Amino acid sequence: MNKQAFYTELHRDLTALISAENDLIATLANSCALLFERLEDVNWVGFYLLQSDVLVLGPFQGKIACTRIPVGRGVCGTAVVENKIQRIDDVHKFAGHIACDSASNAEIVLPVYSGNDIIGVLDIDSTVFNRFDNDDESGLKALAAVLSKHISQG
What we know:
By secondary structure, the protein is of the alpha+beta class. The protein has four helices and six strands, in the order ααβββαβββα. GO terms for molecular function: L-methionine-(R)-S-oxide reductase activity.
């Protein structure tokens, strides 16, 4: 299956999975479980939720993670400050990278919104360098938009 078809199917499945759930934590928990199960070559999928000027660990799948990340620090904190997706091919070359799992080599972080306000980020790590390409970014951006729309309506 090509990536566009994969993400179209994943979009459909995520939409169905969260459609009847209004609780934020339940929605995020099942969303990261779905992504962790379906995405290849990922070692961590989860959410960090914005509380003031700190991102606090939310639902995730993978090894033990950093609990708090100051806004502006690491890939996740940079995504919040810049209000845009961060796709990092080699996290070891990212100044200020916070290594929760030393096996991670690539990362993509997508802002999650309620209305126009960032409420957190979706963070996905891989042990494979250059794991996330343009198709992954587009597909994951569409999934983050589904989540944001659902949260905004919740």
